[in-house]
Amino acid sequence: MNQRIGLVLAVLIGLLSDLDAQRPVTKELLAHTYSIVARDPQTGEMGVAVQSHWFSVGSLVSWAEAGAGAIATQSFINPAFGPEGLQLLKEGKSAAEALTILIAGDDGRDFRQLAIVDTRGRIATHTGKKCIPAAGHQQGEFFSVQANMMLGDKVWPAMARAFSAGKGPLAERMLAALEAGEGAGGDIRGRQSAAILVVKGKATGKVWQDRVIDLRVEDHDRPLVEMRRILHLYRAYEHMNAGDLAVEKNDMDAALREYGAAEAMIPDNLEMKYWRAVALANKNRLAEALPVFKAIFRKDPNWRTLTERLPGVGLLVVKPDELQRLLEQ
């Protein structure tokens, strides 16, 4: 009886060992997904955009660094491909050389999907033979699209067409590629999260400036719709940031112009309305500013309290009687 039990246990252990040998070496989470890595030849910017039916896909799939390149590591993710790949690129390796080194050193290579673009726009892509179908990739000039566990094999060709035909900034073109992939069937499981990461082509040493865009939708029933919304919001806040910089330089004409551009993009945003009104007041255009302040104060009286504090730090330059009129709105 004991011999029989021992024999059964030996068989079970052997089966489990065979299963372990077939699994990818990494213990990280799966991220079956579709993505694009690309470089804009006009600006030098490089980026990654991704969507998946997986929570917070951008936290492991997307990697990019100014002066190095952009990387998407997906399927059964090997997250080390991100930082190690960027280091290889910084050492002067091409996208193809970096990919070859990474894949050669990974026992789970058959389960991986990896795409790299370097600062010269050179592309390298790997789709392992054990990636779950439909899986594949397509390269174009300065970009690669890749996907696995898709509903069908039309996803990455649709992405390639959309990106090639796209106009405008890199982030918007990459988002259009993701939207085309979803339109062609997308992830067989559905959708949950998305991310866009864009960096400058050349490193300045100032990380906060080198990382141009870093947006994520971590959990949403329509992540690309939400990404489109927040990317539009991001562009509006680019104008807000430029307006703040103009205020620092006491250039009220530029501040008014930038705040106005932001408000035109997001008309219902009280923050944007408010700082445009402040800029108007600082330009001695109080009559135009008063109705704007009035509408804002009615929606949220905290803005009136904030307005009382601005003269003390030099951000609202009006006469005492004008300030009183303003606060009475």
The CATH topology of the largest domain is Glutamine Phosphoribosylpyrophosphate, subunit 1, domain 1
One letter per element, helices H and strands E, the order comes to HEEEHEEHHEEEEHHEHEHHHHHH
- Our estimate of the beta-strand percent is 15-25%
CATH superfamily of the largest domain: Aminohydrolase, N-terminal nucleophile (Ntn) domain
How are the strands ordered across the major sheet? 8-9-2-3-10-11
Indicate the CATH architecture of the largest domain. Answer: 4-Layer Sandwich
Kindly provide the radius of gyration, computed on alpha-carbon positions and rounded to a whole number of angstroms. 26 Å
Write the layout of secondary structure elements.
Elements: H1 2-22, E1 30-31, E2 33-39, E3 46-52, H2 58-61, E4 62-65, E5 69-76, H3 81-90, H4 95-104, E6 112-118, E7 123-127, E8 136-140, E9 143-147, H5 155-165, H6 170-183, E10 193-199, H7 207-210, E11 211-217, H8 223-248, H9 252-265, H10 270-282, H11 286-299, H12 302-309, H13 320-327
Antiparallel strand pairs: 1-5, 2-3, 2-9, 3-10, 4-5, 5-6, 6-7, 8-9, 10-11
Helix pairs in contact: 3-4, 5-6, 6-8, 8-9, 9-10, 10-11, 11-13
